[in-house]
Amino acid sequence: MNKLILIGNGFDLAHSLKTSYKDFILWYLHEILAHYQRTNKYNDQLFYAKQVGHIHSRSIYLLENIAEFKDFFEKNGIEIRFNSEFFRIIYDRTSLERWVDIEFLYFDLLKGIVKKINDEDEASMNEAITKVDKLNNDLSFITVKLKQYLTSLGDLSKYRTQSIADKFQSILINISSQPQQVLCLNFNYTDLIYNYASDLNINTAESATSVVNIHGGINDENNPMIFGFGDEIDPVYRQLENLPENKFRDHIKSFWYLKTDNYRKLINFCEDEPFTVYIMGHSCGLSDRVLLNYIFEHEYCKHIQIFYY
Questions:
Q1: What is the pTM of this model?
Q2: Residue 3 vs residues 8, 181, 193, 218: alpha-carbon distances, Å
Q3: Residue 206 pLDDT
Q4: pLDDT at residue 306 above 90?
Q5: Which of these ranges, 85-89, 161-165, 167-171, has the smallest mean pLDDT?
Q6: Terminal Cα-to-Cα distance of the chain (whole angstroms)
Q7: How far are the Cα atoms of 19, 117, 152, 254, 295 from residue 112, in angstroms, in the given order?
């Protein structure tokens, strides 16, 4: 039986990598303040800050959560303004709930725009187009910043733990005695999975294992980052799909999957013969619902095993 290993962000987090969206937002705010301290002003597509009071000396690198940033802005007389409603909601939710799913929030806001469209009212369509243009541009800007953040993490080759190596080796037990194939479906933008190449027999002459970076990577021009939504099962999606403007579908993951052969590799694997699924660090959330639904409901999917950190 073939083996399909799903690698999600929890895999990176289990190596103490700060790759959550919360970590990314905090990095972005640190970048804002670092620029602000040099110029007493900051302005980009998402955020605006300007000095209106006296700056108290405190290292910005001691700020560890949104609440501390808010306190810093207020106590130092820094006027802030959100140039993006999308980012304002991200900021507020990260503050209140201490986590946020940016892709899910994007789709939620997009659905809100689509639901207000009246097919018989041209003005409502024009208003929706204006709003979705802004939302898409903001998501594209965030994607660029996310790539910068992940790149700033530096060389990841040292991150490897024996307990996870043992898990991979347990999955591959007796793999050489049978004509089995193993596919690592990597949902992360990092290439941390390759630190276990020897444990998974990746890139060896007798290799039975291949890796598909389904969402692209930060350093791969031929397989760029895919950042958006993949919940085409949602009832609002049908309305979205029928809209005449393509910009409503700019960040549909399945559209971007067609730009490479990654999705085709997954389909070929699933159609080959029965397989077992191993989940390592993937939340199985709605932002990947269509792809996961295809895997879990496939007639050849015989067993699902979840590894917990």
A1: 0.91
A2: 16, 6, 16, 26
A3: 58
A4: yes
A5: 167-171
A6: 25
A7: 28, 9, 34, 21, 29
